[in-house]
Structures are given as C-alpha cells and as structure tokens.
Amino acid sequence: MKRNNKKNHQLYGFFTSVGLHNYPGGGRNWPPSSKKKSVATTTIIFLFSLIFIVLVSAGWIDASFFSVISSYKSILVVSEKPTPPQKSEFPLICNKGNATKCPRNYPTSSYNTTLNLSRPMTSKNVACPSYFRWIHEDLRPWKETGITKDMVERARRSAHFRFVIVDGKAYVEKYRQSIQTRDMFSIWGILQLMRYYPGRLPDLELMFDCDDRPVVRQKDFRGPNTHPPPLFRYCSDQWSFDIVFPDWSFWGWAECNIKPWGDVLGDIREGNKRTKWKERVPYAYWRGNPIVAPTRKDLLKCNVSQKNDWNTRLYIQSWDEEKKQGYKQSNLQDQCTHRYKIYTEGWAWSVSEKYILACDSMTLYIRSRFHNFYIRGMEPLQHYWPIRENSKCTSLKFAVDWGNNHTEKAQAIGEAASNFMQEDLKMDYVYDYMFHLLNEYAKLFKYKPTVPAGAVELCAETMACLANGTWKSFMEESLVKSPTETSPCNLPPYDPQAVSQLVERKASSTRQVETWENEYWQNLNKKH
Ligand SMILES: *[C@@H]1O[C@H](CO)[C@@H](O)[C@H](O)[C@H]1NC(C)=O
Ligand SMILES: *[C@@H]1O[C@H](CO)[C@@H](O)[C@H](O)[C@H]1NC(C)=O
Ligand SMILES: *[C@@H]1O[C@H](CO)[C@@H](O)[C@H](O)[C@H]1NC(C)=O
Ligand SMILES: *[C@@H]1O[C@H](CO)[C@@H](O)[C@H](O)[C@H]1NC(C)=O
Ligand SMILES: *[C@@H]1O[C@H](CO)[C@@H](O)[C@H](O)[C@H]1NC(C)=O
Ligand SMILES: *[C@@H]1O[C@H](CO)[C@@H](O)[C@H](O)[C@H]1NC(C)=O
C-alpha cells in the first residue's frame, strides 16, 4: 500500500494544506543532559536534596526537575528512588511546502522509548476499572461464531469509515461525511492509541458509524444463522448490538471549543476548588440545548417560576450565541457553582455527561435510554442520584430537598463521581479501554485483514499537519508524544454473573430512591 497524499486530500476535504508548521526533527530529550557541578560542601547539597525529595514526594515539583538532582545521586543515601529512565519524545514532523508523509522515526515497540533498550515494560499490574467488564458483553454476540469478513462487510451499510490496522500501520477508507469533524477526531484518537501502545495492536479492521443512535437491532438477529454485523459507535442501548467506543470529544470538540479531556479534567479539578460545596447555590443546575430531544423540552417545564419552585435553575445554551461571545458562558470549569447538576440525554447519549459528573456537585441523573462506554460502571447513590424520566419535576424537587437535608451524603456522592472521572476515566484508562476492546475484538477474527484498495495510510502527521485553527491546536494538545512505559491494566475475565449482579444492584438502589420519593410526596399531600 503506497501512501497517496493526493487521495488524502480528497479523503479529508476538511483539511487544508496551508499553515503548515515546521517542527524541528529528532526529539526533545528528556531530561536534559545532567550537569556535573562542583560541590562546595556535601552538607549543603545533602540538605538541598532532602528538601527536594520532600517537595517531590508532596507533588509540588514536577518530576522533570529530577535531572538536576540525579547528578547528586551518589550522596543521596536516603533516596530509594531509582533515576527515572530517559524517555524520548516524538513531536509532529511536518514538512513545509511538501507533502507530509508518515515518518518512520516513531518507535515500533514500547521497548524503544527508553535509552536502555533491554529494559522490559513495567507492569501496571492493577485491575482495570469496573466498566471494562462490559467489553466482553459488547462482544458476546460473536463469542461463539467469531467474526467473518462477511459480517464486517455488512456493517459497512451505515459506516462513515473503515479503520484497518495491518503490521502496526493504520489505514482508513472513508465512505461518507460525518457530522462536524467527529470522524476526524475519532480516527485521531485511534492513531494516538497506536502511539501510546506501538506495536501492540493486532491486525484488525472495523467499521465505524459516527451518528448518534444505535442501528444494529437485536430483534433482527434472533433466528438461526443470523449474525449481527460488528459496528462501532459512541453509544448503544439495551436493544442493540452496537459496540460502544469513546467519542471524539476525548480528543477535543473543536466546533464547541471544548478542549481535549485530559486538559478539561485539570480545569475542572481547579474549578471544583473554587467554591466549597456548602457555599454553592442549593439548587439543581442545567444548561443545554433543549431542541435536540423532547425529554429536554420536558425538563424545561421544571424551571423555577412564579407558580412553582421545583428547586431547579435551568438555562438554554445556544452554541451560535456562545461562539459570538467567545464561549464565555460555556467554560466547563466555571460551572461547578451549584450543589446539584442535572444530566439528561439528548437525541442519544450526551457528550456533556462526563463534564457534569466531573464536577463534584451531586449529579441528578435523569433515567437514560442510551449508554456510553464508561457509565455502565457507575452506580446510583454511589456516583449519582437517579431521577425519574416520566416525572422529572417532582423527582428533582425531592432530590434537592434530600440533598440539602443530608449535605454530607450528597457531597460524598458528588465527590465519588468526580473521583471516578479523575481516576477511572483519565486518558490512560481511556486508552486501556480502547486497547482491550480492540484486542478482544481482533481475537475473534476468522480471517486475516488486508489493506483495502481504496484506503490511505494515516498517521498523526498526515492529519495534524494539514489541519488548521482549533482543530490543529486540539490535535497538538492531545498528541501522545511517546509510548507509555507501563502495560495495560488487567482486564477482568468474562463474568456474566458479575454483570447481572451489577445490573440488579443498580435497579434496586433506583427502586429505593423511588420509594423514598413516593413517601415524601404522600406525606406532603396529606398535610395539604
Ligand atoms: C481551516 O479549514 C477549514 C476547512 O478545513 C476552512 O474552511 C477554513 O477556512 C480554514 N481556516 C483557516 C484560518 O485557514
Ligand atoms: C520534498 O521532499 C522530497 C523528498 O521527500 C525532496 O526531494 C524535495 O526537495 C522536497 N521539496 C521541498 C520543496 O522541500
Ligand atoms: C526499535 O526501532 C527500530 C526502528 O526504529 C527497529 O528496527 C527495532 O527493531 C526496534 N526495537 C524493538 C525492540 O522493537
Ligand atoms: C537496562 O535494563 C536491564 C533490565 O532491567 C538491566 O539489567 C540493565 O542493567 C540496564 N542497563 C543500564 C545501562 O541501565
Ligand atoms: C429559568 O429561570 C431562571 C430564573 O428565573 C431564568 O433566569 C432562566 O432564564 C429560566 N430558564 C429558561 C430556559 O427559561
Ligand atoms: C427535609 O427537612 C425538612 C425539615 O425538617 C422536612 O420537612 C423535609 O421533609 C425533609 N425532606 C427530605 C426529602 O428529607
């Protein structure tokens, strides 16, 4: 398969070839070469080192300062820490005024990143977060039969693109234009996974549909010899076989000026600190676009009015208006000002879900039909408060009332979700999820995938060098600069019982809340 940049341009009409940045080749070596300084007195250095170690262990000083201290290692009798391995970074190499090719300097295996090539990869040796369990569930329809070429081809009907990995290289065949640049950032995400775990992804091909709602209906595949096509998308529901995959916004949502998830997490962490929970507005907050779904229009009926106070404060988000005003209102880190935040799905799952849960206000989660990949690991009363879909206003009023009476508990629920987002859903685990999902998927293959005739090779350079504006800067920000040094977390084994227990536990705590809610309204009505 030859790289074909002309084809590349046709394929990605949304890329432009102007504004190419010329990055210096090679790579910034980290850390900078150690400087041997002449030492006046050992004592001073020793004290300095001690202070430094205290600062480092308290997390105040970035570890990159380590190089300074490494030359004094011989006298650091108290230090047990080995010198961190020297790690190379591999920034983008864009050729000015020339077609950008996929450079071949990036390591082909994780062992190549450190200067010591014989050093084996260190094991993370931790269990994956609970939501990884669902990888097996999503792939269960093909567990017995495996995946054949015919099945994959049948998934093409609604796919926006086919993604192929052969010998560690990525190829894409584009079929139709997606909404905004969803396809571009999804492809970008998989390319970053390949930089994160180079040489560790098996040969595979997958069909990806970037639209909102699942389309592989279970009821169409009940009979014998009817095998569903494996189709990847951002969400699914309990009646569908679509395989869920992280959405584009983890690498940034350029059209809405929402930064890559790794950066947003940092911003929200800061935002959470800004107002103490108890000092926040004691109402339920929501800001969004109500036009996308009837259930959202229904929610707006619960806004505070002269007649009713359902303990909510609801606002309409107009992205066009936001754009004009420079996205001042939509700063995610500035939205943790209320004790409670409402989540409601839109036409399908909503990208806003993770930003709402990351805020350490308690999430009031309106029962949803659609699930993304991580929400299945979260539980009512532990990470959020369940809200009825068919009686939102009464349900919300009770939830806020309960929270204001049980502030410690409400605060704990908000913090648990926030910690889940910061820890279990940090980018390292998003890559681990993609890694395990694609690995398990590839294990099911009954044939050896080959590069299709219509496909072009893609890499970070062929995408980012041709991008411009916010698209380009989000790619630069979310670029994986070097392979990870640790192996993926340990995938929990296939355990249908554990899954059904989890489902039962969720249903039971939701029922519990509904019972409290009924009692509350019965008592109120009795009084009147
Ligand atoms: C960036 O690219 C888009 C489409 O790819 C194009 O419409 C837009 O004019 C470009 N902007 C600049 C500043 O070059
Ligand atoms: C483009 O790259 C080719 C080789 O990859 C080189 O021979 C040629 O001089 C380059 N052209 C420019 C304008 O840099
Ligand atoms: C390291 O990368 C080089 C090419 O850059 C490759 O030839 C070599 O086999 C790689 N080493 C390992 C251990 O994969
Ligand atoms: C490189 O790593 C191997 C395995 O961990 C170790 O035995 C060896 O001493 C290391 N070499 C250097 C120069 O650090
Ligand atoms: C909801 O009520 C608040 C307070 O009165 C108001 O500022 C806001 O605009 C209302 N939201 C909608 C969508 O009408
Ligand atoms: C909260 O406390 C008030 C005052 O004690 C009480 O009237 C109300 O029913 C309580 N609400 C809930 C949901 O516990």
Automatic annotation (TrEMBL):
Pfam families referenced in this protein's UniProt entry, alphabetically: Glyco_transf_90
Membrane-spanning intervals of the chain: 38-61
The Glycosyl transferase CAP10 domain, residue ranges: 200-448
InterPro entries: CAP10, O-Glucosyltr/Glycosyltrsf_90
Origin: domain of life: Eukaryota
Keywords attached to this entry: Membrane, Transmembrane, Transmembrane helix
Protein name: Glycosyl transferase CAP10 domain-containing protein
